[in-house]
Amino acid sequence: MNNRKIDFKIEFVHTKKGDNAYTVINGVKYRVRVETLILDKNNYVYAQKKDKMNQYGVYYKIPGGSIEPNLSFIEQACAEVEEEARINPKNIRDSGIVYIQSYNGNYPEWQKKVLWPLDCKCEGSVVMVFVAREGEKYTGYIKDEDKDSLYMYAKFYDANELDLRKSHKDAISWYLKNKF
User: Fold this and answer.
1) Which of 23, 112, 128, 167 could form a disulfide with 99, with the two C-beta atoms 3.0–4.6 Å apart?
2) Whose CA is closest to 94, among 29, 178, 165?
3) CB count in 10 Å sphere of residue 52
4) What is the dihedral of CA 11, 16, 18, 23, to 10 degrees?
5) Which one-letter DSSP state was computed for residue 55?
6) What is the pLDDT of residues 114-151, one digit of tens each?
7) pTM for this structure?
């Protein structure tokens, strides 16, 4: 049901909390994720600034997560924005940008507890980047296991304040150039 042409095979590991997507590239397992950069009317980026570098090698967090087998990539990107930012995204677009981020040994604790016992030790993530405009506040139902505290700590920042990774800068530039 996915709407993007990809050149890697996606598989799923089933856990008590749901499905987690992964792929194998050159014999190495990676989670398959979507991330969405949300822009306000001033083209500021919705994010939570962090004091410490996270497992993805940046000092900020934006809405994102693993894909589910029953949703397209764009539907998953929208779901992550609704769940994590409590925002209805407008004009969401697939930037076409994909990057691989290695954990470099900084494995998330939840993966050690949930995925490793299922023989799914991922060394990082393959991430598809989406960009959207800020919409109205999302008031729909969110399952407890999908709730994220990002919305309590995030706000809109000038992109220069965030030291965005190149793939995120490129996605925003593409989006603005195409006047979405």
Assistant:
1) 167
2) 178
3) 5
4) -20
5) T
6) 999 999 999 999 999 999 999 999 999 988 878 888 88
7) 0.93
